[in-house]
Write a sequence for this structure.
């Protein structure tokens, strides 16, 4: 796939360069005339060929496993990044960058799982119990 992608990138870049040069020549020669259709088609084809070449040469995507990543961040906490300040102090990471969301308190935790989000079913149960007791806590 790398050879096909490199070939498509080269051909697309050549077409794109030629289309840009043709556009420059046309606008320099005929400043008020519209751009010819063949230059427009060449430009669009070059963009498509170049895009296909970029897709073929790009590395394969890796799956994102947020739960594993977030669990590792919460277990490790603050750790060194291997960077140092001018004063000689190590720069520490902040650990979990999403800790402010409060995701660790949900599903079996004491808080609602996400701060800023409302547990509708839990609130309905609380209201039903409150109504059963006649509006008293």
């Amino acid at each position: 796939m790398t050879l096909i992608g490199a070939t498509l990138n080269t051909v697309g870049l050549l077409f794109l360069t030629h289309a840009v040069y043709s556009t420059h020549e046309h606008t320099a020669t005929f400043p008020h005339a519209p751009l010819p259709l063949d230059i427009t088609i060449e430009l669009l084809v070059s963009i498509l060929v170049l895009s296909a070449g970029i897709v073929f040469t790009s590395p394969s995507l890796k799956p994102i496993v947020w739960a594993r990543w977030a669990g590792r961040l919460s277990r490790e906490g603050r750790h060194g990044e291997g960077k140092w300040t001018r004063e000689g102090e190590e720069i520490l990471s902040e650990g979990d960058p999403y800790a402010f969301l409060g995701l660790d308190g949900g599903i079996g935790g004491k808080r609602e799982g996400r701060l800023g989000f409302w547990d509708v079913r839990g609130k309905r149960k609380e209201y039903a119990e409150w109504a059963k007791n006649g509006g008293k806590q």
